[in-house]
Amino acid sequence: MEKHQLYQAAWQLHQQSEAANFKINACEGAHFCACPSVQVFCRTQAQQKSPTLYQPSLVFIFSGVKKGALGAHQFQYDADHFLALTSPYPFQSQVEASVEQPLLGIQIDLERASIAQLLQDISQINGRVEPPQNSDTLGIESHPMTEELREQLFVLMRTLQDPVAAQLFGEERIRAVLYTVLQGSCYHLLRRWSDMDGLFAQFQKAVAYIQQNYQRLNDIQTLSQVSGMSASSLNRAFKKYAADTPLQYIKKIRLNTSRSLILNGLTAQSAAFEVGYESMSQFGREFKRYFGYTPKQVKKGLLTK
Questions:
Q1: How far apart are CA 106 and CA 156, in angstroms?
Q2: For residues 30 and 261, what is the distance between their CA atoms, to the nearest angstrom?
Q3: What are the domain boundaries of the chain?
Q4: What is the pTM of this model?
Q5: Backbone angles phi, psi at 142, to 5 degrees
Q6: Which helix (H) or strand (E) element contains residue 237?
Q7: 81-85 and 57-63: which strand pairing?
Q8: What is the pLDDT of residue 1?
Q9: Tens-digit pLDDT profile for residues 243-268
Q10: What are the DSSP calls for 121-190, one per residue?
């Protein structure tokens, strides 16, 4: 499978999705496809390091380059590498793109239950389960693209261009992509994510609770109870897997969510209250410190588009 064939299939999918999608997204040029778990995105301008929030997903790039930084950890994803994330990760990202070589790719959202079910189905057929390797890495990794994976992605994108085929076979094509991913170096990350025990699973329980309760969560005692860890163990787990303390992680989730709400039409005040801020002055200070611009500048940018 030639890279230019993937590029052409992704470009056609982007053009089709762009025409059908009128919702303003937090990510410039991102559009939902016929399968709700897949988005296609395109950028024609480079972007310096700025905060980005990804949900658990696989991110495939067919043109251009993205570089990410989470604490001291650096990773790159491009036409030869894809990104796998198993938690909502707020990290710094940088885009290398131009009109001649845009950033073009797709994002496939992941659900832990679906990965666990697929792993179970595989083990029932081949009669064995390979245990995950012990790892101190984050729940976010860059992995090499393979020829088999490129072929499955091409079939997926061609399927999504046909609304009827997408309804009939879209989920099967996504499942085939996931199966191919599990045959490579990403297996151990996704297998570790699907397991329901161990330190990483306890960290995931805390993250899941934050996603549902970040608006009113201001201490870590409840997180400690939910995850089954002491406060000190919880702090160590977040520093290990998210390069942040729990409270820093919660703040970044709030701020990234508030920016998305503003980009989707809410006022800055409404967005601040929606994510749990009671003080607009505090919200404005923390927003500016994190993003480098104010909520009003986000709103003005939206209104002038």
A1: 11
A2: 15
A3: 3-194, 199-303
A4: 0.89
A5: -105, 135
A6: helix 231-241
A7: antiparallel
A8: 75
A9: 899 999 999 999 999 999 998 889 99
A10: HHHHHHS--PPPPP--S-SEEEEE--HHHHHHHHHHHHHHTSHHHHHHHHHHHHHHHHHHHHTTTTHHHH
Residue 257: which residues within 8 A CB-CB, separation 6 or more?
A: 53, 214, 274, 275
Residue 137: per-residue pLDDT: 67
The neighbouring-strand residues paired with 30 are 41
Q: Same CATH topology for 3-194 and 199-303?
A: no
Tell me if 210 sits within 8 A of 103, measured CB to CB: no
Q: How far apart are CA 122 and CA 125, in angstroms?
A: 5
Helix (H/G/I), strand (E/B), else coil: 87: coil
> What distance lies between CA 21 and its chain's CA centroid?
20
Q: Do residues 84 and 186 touch, judged by C-beta distance below 8 A?
A: yes
d(CA 263, CA 30): 13
Query: What superfamily in CATH does domain 199-303 come from?
Result: Homeodomain-like (1.10.10.60)
Contact of 298 with 262, CB cutoff 8 Å: yes
Q: What is the helix (H) or strand (E) element at residue 83, kind and residue range? A: strand 81-85
CA distance 96 to 102: 8
What is the residue whose two structure tokens read 């989470």?
A: 70
CATH architecture for residues 3-194:
Sandwich (2.60)
The structure tokens listed for 209 are 């609770």
Mean of the per-residue pLDDT values for the chain? Answer: 90
List the 38-43 sheet strands across, edge first: 30-32, 38-43, 103-109, 57-63, 81-85, 140-144
Provide the token pair at 193: 């994510």
